[in-house]
Amino acid sequence: MPRTWSSLFTVSDDTKEKLAKGIDVSRLILHYGWVPFVIYIGYTRSNPQPSLIKLISPLA
After folding, report:
1. CA 30 – CA 38 distance, rounded (Å)
2. What are the phi and psi torsion angles at 9 (to 5°)?
3. Could you say which protein family the record assigns here (predicted)?
4. Is the distance from CB of 49 to CB of 43 less than 8 angstroms?
């Protein structure tokens, strides 16, 4: 008799809720953390590195 993935992994409803919550939290972190992460990488990898005041204030 062939085994299927569903027969190998039985997951309780509590585990499904925890997985769904973890996925929602990771989506939230990715959604709000992406742009600051890209700015940080651009700031630390650029040559010459701009001053921090020029990074924060567009008028400086």
Report:
1. 12
2. -120, 105
3. Belongs to the Tom7 family.
4. yes
Residue-wise pLDDT for 14-25, tens only, equals: 999 999 999 999
Contact indicator for 43, 50 with CB cutoff of 8 Å: yes
DSSP 1-27: ----HHHH----HHHHHHHHHHHHHHH
Evaluate if pTM is beyond 0.70. no
User: How far is the C-alpha of 59 from the C-alpha of 23, rounded, in Å?
Assistant: 39
The token pair at 50 is: 């701009």
- Give CA torsion, residues 24, 29, 31, 34, to 10 deg: -150
Three-class DSSP category at 48 = coil
